[in-house]
Amino acid sequence: MKPASFDYLRPATVADALAALAAGGDDARVIAGGQSLMPMLNMRLVQPRLLIDLGRLEELRTLRVEDGWLSVGAAVTQAEVLARRTLAQEVPLLAAALPWVGHFQTRNRGTLCGSVAHADPSAETPLCLVATGGEVVLRNLRRRRTVAAADFFLGPLTTVKAADEIVECIRFPLARPGSGHAFREQSMRHGDFAIAACAATVDGERASLAVGGVADRPTTRSWPLVAGGLPPDLDDALNAFAWDLGGDDDQHATARYRRDLVRRIGRTVLEEALSCRR
Ligand SMILES: Cc1cc2nc3c(=O)[nH]c(=O)nc-3n(C[C@H](O)[C@H](O)[C@H](O)COP(=O)(O)OP(=O)(O)OC[C@H]3O[C@@H](n4cnc5c(N)ncnc54)[C@H](O)[C@@H]3O)c2cc1C
């Protein structure tokens, strides 16, 4: 299939990109890696008149630690983050989850910020951002604002981002000493979107589980540790969480199967996170 015709702009600066986005209104879209947007264009699910390419803006090619956060700019690809040698120490959950995002070919172009802006409920990057307590930095022509990841996602492909804003960068808090992290997912094949994905963190006196692919957005629940271990009624707690997540039957799995994955994978990753505390 072929997309409807559109104009293509490769701005020289972020300010130029934001000006074009503001002027274009609902007819304009930004494109980063194109790994989600191009299929949508080809299927004519979206038909913008103007595409504004963020992918080559050096200002957005930032990947650095600042003030206790790992900051990932909008032009940084999934492959570039995965190749960072210190990633497993800085954000171990992201290091564990990124290899599950698509394939190396798609990771060479796809960006973390694009995945967050796209807000697929099964995507691993939004899940990690919510699970770690990360932030989304939004920018338009007039201002910059920071939104907690837990407040950013509203539902499938829906966020609090306004049409004239870009995701300038996302920020993951650095893992604290003594914390433990684990990630697992179930998908039809490696590289497919998750049927259910579970990200666990054990930090201080609490254990947290974030789940993607079941509810309409990444969702977290946490429990106090009991005598340094997981709560004795964890199975009941996971069962209640699985039912609260809802989840629908679709062509990939039934809601019942998804609940079962939350119970089983949830327990596994919580145990792994507890046992690998550093
Ligand atoms: C074969 C295949 C398998 C895949 N498997 C997975 C998978 O298992 N897990 C997974 O999570 N993803 C998967 N993906 C999607 C992939 O991770 C995409 O890279 C990602 O969802 C979007 O990032 P992008 O940079 O390609 O964004 P684009 O496709 O360029 O854009 C996606 C959307 O976000 C908007 N956008 C992009 N960047 C910004 C920004 N900085 N500010 C504001 N809006 C922005 C665009 O306007 C568009 O609406 C797969 C893709 C393919 C083709």
TrEMBL record:
Keywords per UniProt: FAD, Flavoprotein, Oxidoreductase, Plasmid
Pfam families associated with the record: FAD_binding_5 (PF00941)
Domain of life: Bacteria
Coiled coil: none
Domain annotation FAD-binding PCMH-type: ranges: 1-177
MF GO annotations: FAD binding; oxidoreductase activity
Keyword Oxidoreductase: yes
Gene3D superfamilies: 3.30.465.10, CO dehydrogenase flavoprotein, C-terminal domain (3.30.390.50), Uridine Diphospho-n-acetylenolpyruvylglucosamine Reductase, domain 2 (3.30.43.10)
PANTHER family linked to this entry: XANTHINE DEHYDROGENASE SUBUNIT C-RELATED
Name of the molecule in the record: FAD binding domain-containing protein
